[in-house]
Predict the 3D structure of the following.
Amino acid sequence: MTPALAWGLVAGMAITNIVVRGAPMLVMSRLRLPSVVERWLGYIPVSVMAAIVAVQVLRPDGRYLPLAHNPYLFATLPTAVVYRYTRSFLGAVLVGIASFVVLRYLLG
Amino acid sequence: MLARMSKPLSPESVPPTRSARFVRGVRLGLPILLGYVPVGAAFGVAATAAGFTVAQATSCSALVLAGAGQFIGLAALQSSANLTAALVATGVVNLRYLLFSATMSPRTRETPRWQQLLIAFTLTDETFAVNIDDSLEGRADGWSMLAVGAVSWLGWTLGTLAGALAGSAIGDPARWGVGFAMPAMFTALLVGQVTGARTLVAAVLAAAFALVLAAALPGQWPVVLAAVVAASVMTAVPR
């Protein structure tokens, strides 16, 4: 790996990233969006999160785990319950990690 | 320091002072930091193994802040030694940020441009999810989003530095259970997003589409396409 290649990759990725991440927010926040677009964008967050959770939990390493031996799946339950009743984000994550460690041990 | 650089924004629903809102953001960002340190460390290990110096690996994380994108860029560069190919590969992986950035745009209307730039710079799957959830409760503002971004950036960059310095001596950080930090975070955020029957239906649709697509498509494509399809279906079906 030559220094030029390595720094070229760093600089190129930095530029593409800020353009891709910055342009829509900076431009669209100045526009009045049609209400149908706003409605559509309103459904994006819940859809993204549900999709991410489904894939991360059911296919943790890119493949399905047997359901009865999936610590990811069962650890989402205490996580969801803690968040639902405490609204503590950090608390839910810490409880989730602890349950995951226990479940991973129990479910082998 | 940051708290003195701009005029106050004072929507009624957010904590009263800028520093209080910033501190709230720091707290919201901590779970992200927890998840980023080990993954950042893994990138540091991988990058130095591929021939990056500690400075190159750490600058890469500090300037790019793109988990999968960085790993893919690195792998593509290593296998082809072709900078263009590597940049195209990482660019494609990061196209989903167009969607996330567009989704954030109505929620950053009140935010000054310099804050928008920094929020955009620290836009990742995780900061997106946290900030969107927070804005659903009406509390996110430029300062809290800046703080979420700053804490996440710190975790990712310091993790990379640690990994690059320690090299392979660290081993696999996953064994400490932090591998569940990100799924746990998204689970909590999903609970916050499901506010009624329609969002529940959207969630179920998106999860089902994503699982079907995950069998065929790599990376984050299943997530992006599933979200686009689910949101389109829900927008098309009248209330």
Summary: Residues 3-28 of chain A form the longest helix (26 residues).
